[in-house]
């Protein structure tokens, strides 16, 4: 039998281009907005809490939409879920750019996040359905490259736009970038994406071929998050509907936790903030109880309770939460420091992130090969590098006089942290999924994908509260402004370092290798 990869129809590659155009703008918006925050702050007199909500609201909504959107796509077909998500995302991007106040902007960002979380699961679903098992690696490699390029280009594109059009118009056009890409993607999706009948027929032929060739039924090694095959769900709950009660409970609980974390500093931590946090905890407990009840009725819950019978999976979920809280918040801190504190332009702020982006791309390129050779050690090295890099940034903020701090000081630490991030991001999901039974791989990967986005939201909420809570500017001089922002940035970066240390320790809860229990 030949080892050559099977031929992939041209239609599959055309569909992949369309899908990755959507993923490009969804991930671009996770980084491009950071450099626009200071401009938004001055343009519409946005509050400090609003700046946190712009990032946290998007990440939280994105994460909460992932699992139900994937389930809905499985039921009605992924084409029109993707199409609708892109349409809403594009309209919400325009609404962000036209916003006149804090409330309009935050609301539009939340809708944008929901739409992004709705269409992104279709990307990995289509790769599973349209590509033969032995050819999926190439498709996922292209997807990984798009992820790296989109996140790397975000700060640069945002900085160039604000540099060219000024602060007031520039931040609005940062959101406007999505309009032409979104419109073209909509037209291409309507024409090029196959419908449910066609994808089911293609998937059935691939499944028959894989059974004949002995290929395993789960996601290929090195596949990005959320890529487990459809067949991973237990037969008793195949095709079950979305757990809407569970979704409402977990959404309400997380929002109840985030609102006081973000608003508490602005409001002076009144009694309602502590009561709301307590209410959020109770809602999350109720969510857990509901999931157990829903599962016992033979239905497919949002988060299957049986996953947490594996202590290593529980540790892996906490790892995903803490790690994403650590690394996604650092450029929130650096962007505010660089522009609002040190008086640099948005473009200069964007250029600061280039070493991290290039490091991430280099680490991602090596991660799959190293994961196969070193096993869990690749995650240990990755989190150690992130911790070392962030610790170096923190020490620089503590020791270098504010007026003397330049991007050259941060180049090596951010390059090291970025390289570690690349080593961790690509293989981390397969190691966490390896802690559960093979039949639960699909549910586990969906939970982890959502937890990662929720971790990003919580990280920004906590870091924003620390940053603005410690910000004290004594006097109106540029030196006083730089000193105050540098001190608060050091405090915020210290929290990011603490998160990264916890993530490093939690890596040891994962299995040494990725051969999941019960897999083929």
From TrEMBL:
GO molecular function, one term: transmembrane transporter activity
Location relative to the cell: Cell membrane
CDD domains assigned to the protein according to its UniProt record, in alphabetical order: MFS_MMR_MDR_like
Listed transmembrane segments: 12-37, 49-68, 80-100, 106-127, 139-165, 171-193, 244-263, 269-293, 313-338, 350-366, 378-398, 410-433, 454-473, 485-510
One Pfam family matching this protein: MFS_1
Gene Ontology terms: cellular component: plasma membrane
Keyword Transmembrane: yes
Membrane topology: Multi-pass membrane protein
Keywords: Membrane, Transmembrane, Transmembrane helix
SUPFAM superfamilies: MFS general substrate transporter
Main location, first listed in the record: membrane
PROSITE patterns, per the entry: MFS
Domain of life where this protein originates: Bacteria
Residue ranges occupied by any Major facilitator superfamily (MFS) profile domain in the UniProt entry: 15-515
Protein name: MFS transporter
Provenance organism: Herbiconiux sp. A18JL235
């Amino acid at each position: 039998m030949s080892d050559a990869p099977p031929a992939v129809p041209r239609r599959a590659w055309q569909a992949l281009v369309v899908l990755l155009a959507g993923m490009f703008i969804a991930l671009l918006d996770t980084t491009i907005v950071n450099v626009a925050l200071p401009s938004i702050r001055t343009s519409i007199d946005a509050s400090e809490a609003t700046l946190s909500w712009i990032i946290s609201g998007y990440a939280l909504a994105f994460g909460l939409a992932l699992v139900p959107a994937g389930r809905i796509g499985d039921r009605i077909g992924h084409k029109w879920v993707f199409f609708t998500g892109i349409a809403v995302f594009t309209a919400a991007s325009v609404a962000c750019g036209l916003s006149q106040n804090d409330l309009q902007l935050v609301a539009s960002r939340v809708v944008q996040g929901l739409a992004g979380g709705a269409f992104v699961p279709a990307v990995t679903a289509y790769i599973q359905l349209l590509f033969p098992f032995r050819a999926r690696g190439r498709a996922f490699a292209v997807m990984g490259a798009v992820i790296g390029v989109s996140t790397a280009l975000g700060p640069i594109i945002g900085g160039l736009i604000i540099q060219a059009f000024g602060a007031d118009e520039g931040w609005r056009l940062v959101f406007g970038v999505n309009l032409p890409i979104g419109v073209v993607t909509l037209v291409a999706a309507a024409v090029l994406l196959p419908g449910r009948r066609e994808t089911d027929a293609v998937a059935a032929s691939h499944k028959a071929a894989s059974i004949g060739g002995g290929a395993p039924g789960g996601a290929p090694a090195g596949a990005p998050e959320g890529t487990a095959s459809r067949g991973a769900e237990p037969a008793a709950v195949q095709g079950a509907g979305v757990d809407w009660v569970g979704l409402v409970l977990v959404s309400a609980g997380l929002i109840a936790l985030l609102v006081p974390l973000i608003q508490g500093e602005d409001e002076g931590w009144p009694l309602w903030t502590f009561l709301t946090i307590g209410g959020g905890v109770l809602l999350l407990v109720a969510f857990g109880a509901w999931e157990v009840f829903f599962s016992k009725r033979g239905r497919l819950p949002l988060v299957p309770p049986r996953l947490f019978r594996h202590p290593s999976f529980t540790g892996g979920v906490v790892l995903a939460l803490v790690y994403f809280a650590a690394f996604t918040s650092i450029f929130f801190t650096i962007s505010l420091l660089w522009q609002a504190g040190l008086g640099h332009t948005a473009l200069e702020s964007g250029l600061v992130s280039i070493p991290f982006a290039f490091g991430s791309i280099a680490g991602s390129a090596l991660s799959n090969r190293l994961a196969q050779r070193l096993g869990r050690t690749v995650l240990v090295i990755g989190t150690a590098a992130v911790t070392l890099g962030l610790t170096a940034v923190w020490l620089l903020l503590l020791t270098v006089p504010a007026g003397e701090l330049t991007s050259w000081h941060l180049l090596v630490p951010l390059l090291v942290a970025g390289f570690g991030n690349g080593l961790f991001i690509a293989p981390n999901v397969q190691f966490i999924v390896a802690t559960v039974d093979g039949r639960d791989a699909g549910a586990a990967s969906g939970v982890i994908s959502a937890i990662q986005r929720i971790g990003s939201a919580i990280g920004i909420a906590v870091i924003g509260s620390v940053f603005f809570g410690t910000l004290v500017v004594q006097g109106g001089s540029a030196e006083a402004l730089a000193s105050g922002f540098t001190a608060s940035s050091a405090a915020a970066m210290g929290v990011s370092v603490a998160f990264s240390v916890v993530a490093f320790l939690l890596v040891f809860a994962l299995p040494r290798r990725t051969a999941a229990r019960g897999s083929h």
